[in-house]
Structure formats: C-alpha cells, structure tokens
Amino acid sequence: MRALGNVDDAYDVAQETLAYAVVKLPTLRDHTKFTAWLRQLTLTHCTDYRRRRGTRRLGEPIAQLNEASEEADLTQRLAIRDSLKLLSEPHQDALLMYYVGGWSIPEIAHLLEVPPNTVRSRLMAAKRLIRDDLQTVFPYLNPMKLANPTLSESHMSLIEAAFPGSRIVSVQADPEPWQPFSPRVKLALSDGTQRTVDFRRIDAHRIQLAQALARLGIPGPQVIAGPQPGQSLCLCQVPRGENLSLWALGGTPHRIRLATERAIEGLDRLQACSEGLMDDPIGATLPRRTLLDEVAILTDDERWNADPWLAEAGAERRAWLADPWFADAVARVGAAVVEIDTPLVYTDYMFFFPQGYRIQTGTAPMDDLVGWPGDPHYGENPLVEFVHVFGHFGDPLLGLAMVWVYDCYPFVHTGFVEQVLWRRGVTQREFAPRLALKALQMIARDLPLERPAGEARYWQSLRGWAEQALSWM
C-alpha cells in the first residue's frame, strides 16, 4: 500500500508476489533470509507493476521502428540487463525503483528505510558502474550528451581567449554530482586535436589563495583563463584523477578502506597549511571564526546572512530560536564552547567531504591495486587534486560533524569520523559540542519547526543528532 498508493493495486501486487514466492520458495537456499527475500520480491513486483501501469503522454510521438532499430534496441536492452547483474542488491533496488518504478528519491528512501543521501549515492554509483560496463560493450556511444548547447558570451570569450579558432563539439551540464564545475565543454581545436575543459567560479582573491596553497603542496584547480575584471567565471582544466567518493563506491573493502585513508590524508594536509598561510599575505585576508562565533551565527542575522551557504535557507530560523528546546540547546552549547581553546586552523566543512579529493586510479576498472595499509604498493593510488581548497581559519573539528549530520555515504559507515577523532586523541565528550552545534545550524537552516506529517526522516535525523550530542556533553 505504501509503495503503490491505493488498496486495489496493493492487493493485486500482493497476490502476484505471494503466488510467485510459493513457486520460487524451493530456490531459497538460506531460509533465515526469508523476510529479506520476500521483501525484495515485493519491491520488484511493485516496480514492475508501476512500469506496466505507466502510459505514454498525450502528444508524445510513437517511435518508428524497423527491423534494424528493433535489433539494436534488443541488443542494448540485453546488455543493460547483464550490466544490472553486476550491481549489488541495494544498488539494483535504487536504480530500478527510480528509473523503472518512477518513485522519487524521498519515496525510495522512505520505502527502503534509508536516508535520501544514501539513495542518491547508490544511484550515482549504479549509473557509473553501468556506464563503465556499457562503454566497453558499445564504445561508439558518446557519454557526453549535448545537455546545454547554449553558452553565454562570457563562456565564449574565455574559450576564444584560450583556444582561438576552436569549435564546440559538446556541452555537458553538471558532469559530476556535488562538484563546483559546470558546464564541461569538449572543443575541436584549430590544430585538429580535441580538448575538454570545465567552467568554475573562482574570483581573483581565490586564485591568489589557490596559488599560495599550491606553494604549500596542495594541488588545486588548474585555471586556464579568467576571470575577467569584476567577474569570477574561469576556464579550467578537467580535474585530475577520479572523484574519491565515486571511486570508493566501486565497492571492494580495499577501496573503501583506502579511500578513508586518503580522505583523512587530504584533511590533514589542508589543515597542515595553517601556519604557512598565516605567514603569507593572503592569510591576513581570510576570515577567522571561533566556536563562539559559530554559536553567534545562529542568533545574529548579519552573521547568518554573511555565510552564503547558510543564507540560502533558514526560513524558520527565527521560529526555532523561539522554541524552548532549541533555545536551551543553543545556551548549553554556548556554555560548553567557552571552555574550548583549541587553536584555529585552515578549514572548511567541505574539507571533510571525500568527494572533494581526487585519486589516481588504474587505466582500466580492474587495474587498481589490492592491498592494505603498510603494503609497499599502498602509495600507488595517491591524491592528485583537491577540488575544494577555499576555506577560513576555524575550529579543526567542527566540519567533521557534517559527515554524520549529512549522512555522507559510504563514509558515514566506514568509521571515518571515529578514525579522525581517535588519531587526534579527541574524546566523545570533547567532540559533542561541535556535533551539537553543527546539528543545530542545520536544523535552523533546513527544517520546519513542526515535524512534517509525511516524510520526516531527515527532520528526525537532525533532531536525533542534536539530542545525541547534548546527551554526551
């Protein structure tokens, strides 16, 4: 009923599923997994039922098929079916429910009882694995679709300045999820070669900061051209290596373990630049935010609006501040952080998200080394670029709370937070005010005051993290 929306459909699918289960029950080898097996069958039948129930939109043209196109279509369908078999069961569920069943991400999260970010990550990983597999079967298929063929005058002037006489082959909006570069443009150059480039917003001040970080051993974005005076649009090289989160979602235990190590390494390297940046003239221009400042952001409109990310939302922040539970939590956190005198370091909450790091991989899917920490081959998959390098001077651990608060899959399950705390000798009680503070900021930014009647998982999760942290204090 929850999956299909009405009693009649649910009754029909329940009958189909039970009949199928009776026939297939002898094939179930491990009877202790009967509940999970039946649940999987039910979801599969619900997905198939929604697909069969769907109809073509009015006015939508009917495809003109011939024998050749039907054969090609069948070949591709069979290849996709084979690729699906390579996915784990959770990845198959997410992909089929989203694209075949037509459920939204919040609906899938509700049905599978996982956070929405977990569904997004599973979809992202599943699409990547299928794309890589199909590219080996159908190498002639171009994965770069002409998603946004219109570029602005600013885009075109930067291209012409860097590559005179070049021609645009394709334009791809948002080439990677949760990344700061878009669109990605493939160019045919005047010398007959091709080049792929990205656009990114980096103002002149941040270019100076990136240059200072490069001198300190942090390989950041590579700017080819721009920005023009008074603007921030830049033409950049495509990031080196592969997104660490996508690479980790390849699924092997070694990959996930190594990705966790690389993310911790990236964080340590960025924060180790603190002294060098303070000695550099650019360091004097960077904001300094203590934990007391972070608490004040919650209650001060000017400080809240000065943070671009927080200022994007927070429609009910004032309502939360008037709520007795929230006001008491803010007061308790404020009293706790007064006692914390940890020196400020160069940091940003984005430094704690592994998708901001790029790792060097093998040239083919199976070329990555399989090893363990201490293995002599362990250093052969190094970090080659830091996508998010722009930060401020602040508390070294506040951003770490975002991994839990925002359910950073799969690293929320790999012990990433616990590893960082253990290596730095930080106790649960010492981390608690940071976790509570970040959860309160996200509550004020993202949540309505009243618990939603329908999908309330995120609402409950943020409240839960705040209450958990307060109980540790």
From TrEMBL:
Gene Ontology biological process: DNA-templated transcription initiation
UniProt keyword annotations, A-Z: Sigma factor, Transcription, Transcription regulation
User: SUPFAM superfamilies attached here?
Assistant: Sigma2 domain of RNA polymerase sigma factors (SSF88946), Sigma3 and sigma4 domains of RNA polymerase sigma factors (SSF88659)
**CDD domains in the record:** Sigma70_r4
Its domain of life reads Bacteria
Which InterPro entries does the record associate with it? RNA_pol_sigma-70-like, RNA_pol_sigma-70_dom, RNA_pol_sigma70_r4_t2, RNA_pol_sigma_r2, RNA_pol_sigma_r3/r4-like, WH-like_DNA-bd_sf
Extract the Pfam families matched here: Sigma70_r4_2
GO terms (molecular function) for this protein are: DNA binding; sigma factor activity
Q: Where is the RNA polymerase sigma factor 70 region 4 type domain?
A: 78-128
Q: Which family does it belong to?
A: Belongs to the sigma-70 factor family. ECF subfamily.
Spell out the protein name for this chain.
RNA polymerase sigma-70 factor
The species this protein was found in:
Fimbriimonas ginsengisoli Gsoil 348
- Lineage, broadest ranks: Bacteria, Bacillati, Armatimonadota, Fimbriimonadia, Fimbriimonadales
